[in-house]
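W.,

You were right to be curious about this one. When I first looked at the sequence I had no strong expectations either way, so I just let the prediction run and decided to look at it fresh. Below is the sequence, 298 residues in total, followed by the output.
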Amino acid sequence: MKPAGLALACTLMSVGLALPACAQSQWFGFQKPGTPAEQQPLLLKKISIQQRLNMQIPLNLEFRDETGKTVHLGDYFGKRPVILSLVYYQCKILCPEEIDGLVGALEMVKFDPGRDFNVVFVSIDRSETPAIAAREKAFYTKRYGRPETVNGWHFLTGDEPAIRALASAVGFGYVPMQGPDGKMNQFAHASAVELVTPEGRLAQYYLGVEFSPKDLQLGLVEASHGTIGSPVDNLLTYCYQYDPTLNRHTLVYIRIFQAGWVLTVLLLGTFLVVNFRRDIREAREQRITARKTTLVNG
């Protein structure tokens, strides 16, 4: 293999080795105080997404809307499908990415919130208030840019029993974590958006923080007719906790690091195979040329 090719292979190999090490440090390096590292995989199980397709969510659960009015989940069902998302509004890491991704995708969907479907966010933080929810609604509806659809966006807060009941029905696992102020005001959770039929049955899951407008539009059409989709690949994006020792937040993209490592290994393997085959071919051609030269000169 030529020196340039060898250098590139070494670079790719170093990247491939660094990725799993990075993933490991992201997870085991930033733990909840007093939690042994060997217990961290158990936490991952607790914050996983269980895709409970066709499950009826409890529409009688009581929440508060962004104006402080007491509402029931069923107030947003009955006529049109619902895009449901469990987040917490003061999250500084993953939740804004998820909401941004959803809003950005819906900008390219032909249907309108309030007329063709509803968007319902529910905070998993019982300490969050309608005032916080109202601020989030104002921010994201302004970004969405269709003021006539404002009544199709709903940002709810509630008490722990209702939050837990909804999360359990949806299959959304989350764990309270300690924040920089010592309070349990942050949450470890995965990122997912659920599409629900007008009757309140879970029709489809969309995992991660980026969503396909085409998939969302098709999903809304199918959900409006009561069609239940299929499970999607469980490639999850995790939101972890604040690390007071480094004075920064940490976002655990363990699965993404793993996928990047696998991709790097595949690229490295492909690169090596192509270059070795090329070297063998060139060596064979050189031998043939040398033989021909010998025969001609001989």
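Here's what jumped out at me. Residues 188 and 240 are 5 Å apart (CA to CA). And, maybe more interesting for your project: Residues 37-249 form a domain with the Glutaredoxin fold (CATH 3.40.30.10).

Coffee later to discuss?

I.
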